[in-house]
Task: inverse folding
């Protein structure tokens, strides 16, 4: 029997390319501070592990897959495979699994064009985009201690 949503933390697999790693690390810290469980490759995959098995297991175990969208990620075969797995789970489960996070302007894959995305393209709007994601997870940013950007 699955624990009720009230008894468990939301969980998210962060799909991205290495070029977006700095952003992903910041996002992962902020999500964890707000109470989410976060799956990031560098923390989960150990020397000698099967990349395919660990990634598939991570996608299966996490409630959501948040894909960090940039020109590099939309052309990445790994990111495409991760999105494909998660979109199939979304269709089969008839509930949202894939959450688009726009890091840099790029051509969105067709199946993501109709989805509302969190817009992280401007650093001064980071908090607003993060809050949109936290609202999806039914979390609040109250535990975030990082100072806001100047001008906010």
Result:
């Amino acid at each position: 029997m699955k624990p009720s949503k009230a008894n468990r933390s939301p969980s998210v697999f962060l799909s991205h390319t290495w070029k977006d790693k700095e952003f992903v690390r910041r996002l992962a810290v902020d999500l964890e501070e707000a109470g989410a469980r976060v799956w990031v490759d560098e923390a989960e995959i150990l020397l000698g592990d099967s990349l395919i098995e660990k990634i598939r297991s991570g996608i299966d175990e996490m409630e959501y897959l948040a894909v960090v969208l940039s020109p590099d990620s939309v052309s990445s075969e790994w990111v495409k495979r991760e999105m494909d797995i998660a979109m199939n789970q979304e269709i089969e489960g008839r509930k949202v699994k894939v959450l688009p996070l726009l890091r840099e302007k790029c051509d969105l894959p067709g199946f993501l064009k109709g989805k509302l995305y969190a817009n992280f393209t401007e650093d001064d709007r980071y908090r607003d985009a993060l809050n949109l994601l936290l609202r999806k997870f039914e979390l609040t940013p109250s535990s975030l201690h990082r100072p806001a950007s100047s001008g906010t």
In short: The chain has six helices and five strands. The longest helix spans residues 77-93.
